[in-house]
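Ticket #4471: structure output looks truncated?

Reporter: J.K.
Steps to reproduce: submitted the chain below (636 residues) through the standard prediction queue, then opened the result file.
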Amino acid sequence: MTPKNNQRILLDFFTSLLLLTISYRLFFICTANEAHSAFTSFHYGTLLLGGISDLVTIGIISGLFLVTQKYSKSYQVLLSYLLLFAITVIYAAHKKIFLILYTGLTYALFIGSFQQGFFFNNYTAFMSTGDWIFILSSFAILTSVRFASKNFLNSLNAYVLLPVMLMTILGGLLCFVFCSYNFKERNAALYSNPLSYMAIDQFNNITNSYYWRKDQPSPQQMQSIALIDPSFVTTPPVQTTPMQATAVTATPWNIVLIILESVGSTHIFEANAQHPSPMPFLQSLARQGLWLNNNYTTGNSSPLGGFGILTGLYANPTLRFSVRPDIRIPTITHFLDKQYDKTFITASVTQYYFPEHLVKNGFNHFYDGRTIPHTAEALLNHLYLQEEVSTDFFLSFLKTVKSPFIATYWSGAAHFPYFDYGKQYQLVKNNPNNSLSLYINNLNLLDQQIKRVYELLAKQHLLDNTILVIVGDHGDSFGEHPAPGSWVHGNALYQEQIKVPLLFYQPKLFKPRVVNQITSSADITPTLLDAMKMNYDHQLVQGESLLSPSPKRKYVFVYGEENELAAIDQHNWKMQISFSKKRCQAYNLDDDPHEMRPLTCNLKEQETAIIKFHNFQSALLNRYNDRLPTMETTTQ
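Returned output as attached by the reporter:
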């Protein structure tokens, strides 16, 4: 091939990539409010400022494209089409993920999605017509450019496309000056080109000193499921036990476990000039039971938080363990006698991000948004059933179930994007359609569903022999902190994402009490088993029974989808380490409950405990899981 042909193919590719990238920025700006009504000129300015990263990335990719000059013209043309299409898909995915999770597309997230069973047909359910048009535009753009003259393309680049890029950068800089925002507060996912965002994130992964530290707990701890190392507990027991579960039942108490999707502690009892308390019934019930006022989820997403609730173990600090199809970790159901009816009902469509196999490994009956009878209109955003429909199904089950039983209901209404359930649940009158207002209204909806469950248990004469447990799987964010982690969940370990409500209600077992010491959702399983006076192997759980006289733990651990691990100690000191970015943060939660003043990470003992736990927990749970036989026997 002649150099002239080389130059023309490169010019076509460069022009097409420039057009595509400008289209991406415009597409992002035009659709930013489809998910976050809180987008302001600050966010739009940040998007415009991304032109700097775009120009650098386009230059690098175009330079790398020169490597193909040794190949034939037809090969180069085919490669340019494929490469441009791949870049378009990455652009579209980055935008969509940001508008859902307020974080960008990373390599770990991309690979992890396939590990959890997401494939192309799963993603298409979330794509709009605009997304399809944008993705397919790469073919139209490159084809049009190839038929244009070289002089026209040179003029287009020199007098239109490059000036447009420079004008967007200028607009972003002007916003930066006049909006008076600190550059560090700008979300990197907005001002970075998606390709450079992925590359820089992966570079930070492999150069992160925390990631490469190999601190390990004692050899005894490496063979024990329960935490016994002095880094984790104050009075470690000496003995360890084999990795096997027992199932011995004493008093046949029923258990009703309600898991509140995306419900943290931040807003549930909040009352202000805009609205009264969203969950007054839960608030009144909390005064009558064991209320954990300082409780933490085991992770900032449903698989991570649900894992701790159901197993009594902390989450695995590696991505996607909780949703692996061959998971065999015992849940609380394995400690219950075979006579128990073990039923799990959720509003979620569990083919998506949900620990379905973990649940099916322990419950005899399983119903989700696909198998609960409903009309097509009842399914929201391809993710959840309307809350009243799934609650009705749960209530119909409670009317016919025979004791003893464990019945778990996992809600959906508080998950993003928040559906408007109507005026009967509308607490916020001013600006009722923004994200936080809809969330508050849906907390009110959930409160009324909890009340319905409670009243049915009373009507069915089940309250006297039933333990009611209510817990959030994780919380949600609404711009409380600068980026990253300002919205929804799964992207940071701020309190609003990880501090969750937890209530045990059974007057015969739990006297009204508020517990202010740190607790974990991993404490649910051992607390229930101790309350029911059941014989079980205490070495098979990592949570602590709240009925024990004093806690042995030094910390509770919380893992984040962003590959971050936090430890909170008994004095409310919180430290969190990112194993994918070069970042450590510490907070004194007594003095700074809203985490606005990060401190220097000089708590060496806590830092070492976090790193040891990160290195230990993953290896332990994988080894534990691999030693267990297949136990999935759930029916629908």
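Triage note (M.O.): checked the attachment and the full token line is present. The two ends are 63 Å apart (CA to CA).
Status: closed, working as intended.
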